[in-house]
Structure prediction request, 220 residues.
Amino acid sequence: MRLVSKNTLQNKKILVTGGPTWVRLDAARVISNMSSGLMARDIVHALLEQGAKVTYLAGPAIFGLNRGTKARVVPFLFFEDLEKSLTAELKKPYDAVIHAAAVADYRPQKTIAAKLASGRKEWKITLIPTPKLIRKIKQINPRAYLVGFKLEPGLTEKKAQREAIRLAGTNACDLVVANSVDGGQYRGLVFDPQGRCLKTVRSRPAMARSLTQILAEHFG
Prediction:
């Protein structure tokens, strides 16, 4: 992979999603996940350094963008918010979509409109699958270069390759990032749709730089 200079993504329009998504239990409680938003934050900063015009769909993450970052930010909290914003943004002429958000896989079958009183002995909740938002991306914007993400604990390269091929085939991804965090140590692998490993890194900033470089080479 060759080195790239500054502004190699000049004026390229790139949509990034990041952070967790909430699903509502009642008027006061939600189910979330442990996404910190770090990966998406680093990706946005790396893209901006190369001159890209970035829109960031930002979930309720612990880590936000640095102050003064020149990205257009569209915040969301709930799964429905992300679905609505993503659908609207995909109707615009984006060159690439990096779908790094940790989208809720399940939501309650029934949501309680009011706050459920505390003190109950138990609260049984039936969860049902949410729609796969990544499947909408190429359906709405087939020309966008799509980067999908797969997070799995204890990820081996063989399993990562298998998951990357599956994700790419199901959702028409042009690139798949398979990553894991074990014992606080990040590991990420970048695959093409055929399962060829293009890059292996050990930190989120390194992954952000690698993705930016791959995009620069693609559009260059």
